[in-house]
Write a structure and sequence with these properties.
Layout lengths: L5 E7 L8 E7 L6 H11 L4 E6 L7 E7 L4 E2 L3 H15 L2 E7 L2 E9 L5 E6 L4 E4 L2 H11 L13 E4 L3 E7 L2 H5 L5 H11 L3 E9 L2 E8 L4 E4 L3 H14 L6 E7 L7 E7 L7 E8 L6
Parallel strand pairs: 2-3, 4-6, 11-12, 13-15
Antiparallel strand pairs: 1-2, 1-17, 3-4, 4-5, 6-7, 7-8, 8-17, 9-10, 10-11, 12-13, 13-14, 15-16, 16-17
């Protein structure tokens, strides 16, 4: 790794710079102070910026990573991890990396496929899932302007965590999802009280295909166009519910309603353990003239 810090900008879960979820990736020899990382993340302005530095153990590919939204630090971010994998591989070549996140170790593997592009596979920390408290669901629905009868009874509300906590709400009709228009401040208060990073709002369009939207007011962002951490949480939730039999793969389409389409692949390899999220990333950096 170069001795000079480098700040990259990439869009994850897409090969089109106009799609996916933009992320900042800061690479250096040592992490800046938290206040400085927060300042940089706010200046970058993307939903998250990942800050990476060697973890000090001397192990090849081992890094400490912290994630900051424009408003606050978050424990884990999937799309910024996908982008980080591509950025690291562009520096040192494809291979395995171990990222020490605030929530635990995340394994990252980057390979170059036949299409010539670098693809990142992250394996989440051990996830957990629990039923959502009725009061939390009621407050979230009120902030969203949704009625309980619009939810999919086959996929009841839950809180799932594969590095960060997400309230999963599945709707019965796509029209409910496509018409999302929520009370930013009200939902932010609900989420802060419940220690939620995003809401994973989904509609099941097929046995292994979902459409998703993810409000992110706690990070100062109205909506995320691709949310890898929430995708991993959804995979863990479906495994917990018995909705799939591992090994299984899910495809999540997100960001279309925002004009930044993304495709997230999720592998649920075992009956226990971390969930894998797969994607690529494209540079948004302006070429030097």
């Amino acid at each position: 790794m170069s001795t000079e810090p480098e700040l990259r900008r990439l869009a994850a879960f897409t090969l089109d710079p106009a799609g996916g979820n933009p992320a900042g990736v800061w690479l250096g020899r040592a992490l800046p102070e938290a206040a400085e990382m927060q300042r940089i993340a706010a200046e970058v302005g993307y939903s998250e910026t990942a800050f990476l530095a060697p973890d000090g153990t001397g192990r090849p590919g081992a890094h400490r990573v912290r994630y900051f939204s424009p408003a606050s630090e978050v424990p884990f971010c999937g799309h910024a991890t996908i982008a980080s994998g591509v950025a690291l591989a562009e520096r040192s070549g494809p291979g395995r990396f171990l990222l020490a996140t605030n929530g635990g170790p995340v394994e990252v593997e980057v390979d170059r496929r036949a299409d010539g592009h670098l693809w990142t596979t992250l394996t989440s920390v051990q996830p957990w899932v629990r039923e959502a408290e009725p009061d939390l669901v009621a407050k979230a629905l009120a902030a969203l302007g949704w009625r309980h009868g619009e939810l999919d009874p086959a996929l009841p509300p839950a809180v799932a965590n594969a590095g960060a906590s997400h309230l999963i709400l599945a709707v019965a009709a796509y029209g409910t999802l496509s018409g999302l228009d929520y009370d930013f401040d009200r939902l932010r208060s609900v989420m802060l009280a419940a220690d939620l990073t995003t809401l994973q709002l989904v509609w099941r369009e097929g046995p292994s295909r979902f459409r998703a939207r993810d409000p992110f007011p706690v990070g100062g962002v109205v909506e995320d166009p691709a949310t890898g951490a929430a995708a991993a949480a959804l995979g863990a939730y479906l495994r917990w519910r018995g909705e799939l039999l591992p090994p299984a793969r899910l495809t999540i389409s997100q960001g279309r309603e925002m004009g930044r389409p993304s495709v997230i692949e999720v592998d649920v390899p075992d009956l226990d353990g971390g969930v894998r999220v797969i994607g690529t990333a494209v540079s948004l950096d302006t070429p030097e003239r």
